[in-house]
Amino acid sequence: MIHVLTADGSIARLYEVSGEKRVLREIADFGNSIAALHERDLVSSRPGRSYNRTSGSRQTFEASSEKQHLTHRWLAGVAQSLQPLLASRDCQCLILVASPRLLSEFRALLPKALQKKVLVEYSRNLAGVPLTTLNVRLRPSVLAAVRLLAEGPMK
């Protein structure tokens, strides 16, 4: 069975490809509740200050924003919850669809067993696209996955 995961910073949806026409059918969605919040709603203080010896000035010090950190934790949770869900549905192939930045971050968070099943990646943000449009946009990716599965294991 071929599965498709579309994701952006606010929602991740898992689809199953079924039937002769290879139509997508949504089987799960994972919402990110903090996506609509502003940074100031998540933390109470401004970034810390540090002294820059090179320029002799004080500057803000912030490794990453709290929103980025919480989004990363949400992605990690989605990646871990996919493992049992796809194992129960006999997943042979997983197609990842997300923006390039999110795609690379999510790929690294997937368990090793699922990383091996990712045969096709599509670096576009299609998480908010209606299902009928998504079927049309992902048809070449689904056909590529079918072709790769028919060729057998890669050596």
Task: Describe the protein's architecture and organization.
There is one protein chain. The protein is α/β, with parallel strands linked by helices. It has one domain (2-38, 57-151): eRF1 domain 2 (Nucleotidyltransferase, domain 5). Helices cover 39% and strands 28% of the residues. It contains 5 helices and 7 strands. It has a 5-stranded mixed beta sheet, with helices on both faces. A hairpin with a 4-residue loop joins strand 4 (48-52) and strand 5. The mean pLDDT is 84.
Question: How are the secondary structure elements laid out?
Answer:
Layout: E1 2-7, E2 11-18, E3 23-31, H1 39-42, E4 48-52, E5 57-61, H2 66-87, E6 93-97, H3 100-109, H4 112-115, E7 118-122, H5 131-151
Which sheet architecture does the biggest sheet show? Answer: 5 strands, mixed
Question: How large a portion of the residues is in β-strands, by DSSP E?
Answer: 25-35%
Question: What CATH architecture would you give?
Answer: 2-Layer Sandwich
Radius of gyration from CA coordinates: 19 Å
Structural class: alpha/beta
- Give the overall silhouette: elongated
Between the first and last Cα atoms, what is the distance in angstroms? 21 Å
